[in-house]
Amino acid sequence: MTMGNRWYKIDSMKIQPVRRIRESVRLPGDKSISHRAAIISALASRGRSRITNFSTSEDCAATLACFKQLGVIVEQDGTTVIVEAGGPILSEPRVELDCGNSGSTMRMLSGVLAGQPFASTLTGDASLRSRPMKRVIAPLEMMGARVSSRDGRAPLQITGRRPLQSLDYELPVASAQVKSAILLAGLSASGRTNVTETLAPTRDHTERMLQWFGVPIETKRGDGSSPNVVSIEGPATYQARDYEVPGDISSAAFFIAAAALLPGSNLLISDVGLNPTRAQVIASMQKLSADVRVLDMRVVCNEDVGDIQISGAESLVPKGGGHTNTLRGTEVAQLIDELPMLAVVGSQVDGGLEIRDARELRVKESDRISTTVENLRLMGAEVEEYEDGLKVAGRTRLRGAKLNAHGDHRIAMAFTVAALVAEGESEIIGAECVAVSFPGFFSLLESVIER
Ligand code: S3P
């Protein structure tokens, strides 16, 4: 299918550079939060939860499909999803539960299924079946579930136990998915489960949403020298509650970057989730001297929400100029999904950008260090690759090139931004994978582009 004289064609995903980005957009619901809204409302013991602005992503559709297999009644009308409370005890599924490409679905459902009195199997696509799952298997086995795997990878066969034993656990990886799996298992454990975020604090959507549903959960905040400890009292039962999902900051990031890099751009993104454990990308863009402002902060369903205003600049010259800009340490955990896009931005910034302490990128939907480095080099950027990150030289005139998404939605979108600011045409092979998190990405971007 060729889309007339539009700036991209679906069949070959050829992308022409554009002049600027203008006006305003509202983005689909946050993917991380939508997974949790589906899971937590399905596990309620009574009532119906109406979830509005539910994510349009294939990943969240996989979560809903799994719960239907677990006997939960789900009705969907566009982005409104109604979930009939199915918990705390779900029905044994007759088929394997297919999590598609979604690590969040597989890891968080592992925590749910660990506390169910039956056996079930979680599987997924080739990418998901190659990703590390020992990080959830180990703590869930300590709580009393039995999990067999293919050497720490899916398919996972989970034999649940009810009640589980409570657990005191220090996270060996900075992962909100693992933390959430343990907290969801903690819902059906007897006693207090404590999760210590030893390496870095990670996104806290699960904690905030459980609190919204009335579950006894609390976080003892660390003070820099001591880590956060999240505690949940089990077994916990609660009732259904309506939930409104904010716009997805990780999807907004691509619009923020495109508008910041194209001079003369002016874009308003409304109703975006700005939870401080997720919104680090705004501070990082500001540190790179991008003109990004937050307006009208408010709290909706226990999450921070606001509007984002971006103006494009001729050039990005961070204060103190000339030095390499760096992203490292604990902030990296709160930027994890935005790093490929920040590497693209880094190629346009005075001083370039070095990203370290980001080893986790190697086990995402693709090895995001190597797929980012490969595509940046194809566009003529000077890049060094490290085991735990990369360094990209700044103020490079990127050249249009034939790029590869490697089946990874965030790589496809990050390099669409690169293609918009490059010289000449680019082609992204396999760009349809954007649907994993953001099916409407290309058409929404088109609606704000000026050629
Ligand atoms: C997510 C947490 C992150 C992130 C993923 C979604 C979540 O993964 O990369 O896209 O919803 O909790 P990790 O927690 O494994 O780092």
Strand order of the largest sheet: 17-18-16-2-25
What percent of the residues sit in helical stretches (DSSP H or I)?
25-40%
What structural class results from the helix and strand content?
Answer: alpha/beta
Rounded mean pLDDT is 95
Estimate the strand proportion: 25-35%
Supply the number of helical segments. Answer: 14
- Write down how many β-strands occur, each being a DSSP E stretch of 2 or more residues: 25
Ordered list of secondary-structure elements with their pairings:
Elements (H helix, E strand, L loop, with lengths): L13 E2 L4 E7 L4 H12 L5 E5 L5 H12 L4 E4 L2 E5 L12 E2 L4 H12 L4 E5 L2 H4 L4 H9 L3 E5 L2 E7 L4 E2 L2 E3 L5 H11 L2 E8 L8 H8 L4 E4 L8 E6 L8 E2 L4 H13 L4 E8 L6 H8 L3 E10 L2 E9 L13 E3 L2 H4 L5 H8 L6 E3 L12 H11 L4 E4 L2 E4 L9 E3 L4 H13 L4 E4 L11 H7 L1 E2 L1
Parallel strand pairs: 2-16, 3-15, 6-7, 10-12, 11-12, 19-20, 23-24
Antiparallel strand pairs: 1-24, 2-25, 3-5, 4-5, 7-9, 8-9, 12-14, 13-14, 16-18, 17-18, 20-22, 21-22
Helix pairs in contact: 1-2, 1-7, 3-5, 3-6, 5-6, 8-13, 11-13
The structure holds shikimate-3-phosphate.
